[in-house]
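Researcher: Next entry in the queue.
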Amino acid sequence: MPFPPHLLTDDEDLVLDLRPHWWFLAPAGALLAVAVLFGLTALLRDWPSWIAVPIGLWVLGSLGWFVVRYLTWNTTNFVVTNERVISRTGVVAKKGIEIPLDRINTVFFNQSLFERMIGAGDLGIESAGEGGRQSFTDIRKPNLVQNEIYRQVEGLEARKFKRMGEAAGSGSPAPAPSIPEQIEKLDQLRRQGVLTEAEFEQKKRELLDRM
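Model: Structure for this entry, 211 residues:
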């Protein structure tokens, strides 16, 4: 199911809209295939009912699990726009998370040898704020998704600087960031290793004294 366009803002463009990798369906599909194989064998060879009945229940249970997994797969979206990263899932009840691009600090991915062969893996995003670190599993080509997120982050920063330049050129000074925003930016520089802990604390104290 595609990501609903009406959930995007006016100036927001959809860049990626991904379902989980097909490997998400593999365990349920394999179990269903084995159950169906046993079921057909029971029918063709006329096995006793005391064997055929449990196999029939196995087939129904496997089919139910596969249907649930498929519905989950079909209603799960991992979305990248030019403003945020969105993850939504749920057949009836929906749950999700949104991470603004300007709050993303680090994007990393993890792939086993087998996952590299099939083009699947896990993606992690570290962001400023209460969310901290978020992990997403069964992502298609996570290395390419990582690169795309970084590209969109850079594009967002470029658009911000452009708007600031246009505001300065029009004679309307851009509003100065608030003290909490300046502290948050300093903390980001500290995490990136640009500022030492001592330098961060000193500049933070100077900003707090101005409040």
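Model: Residues 26-73 form one domain.
Researcher: Noted, moving on.
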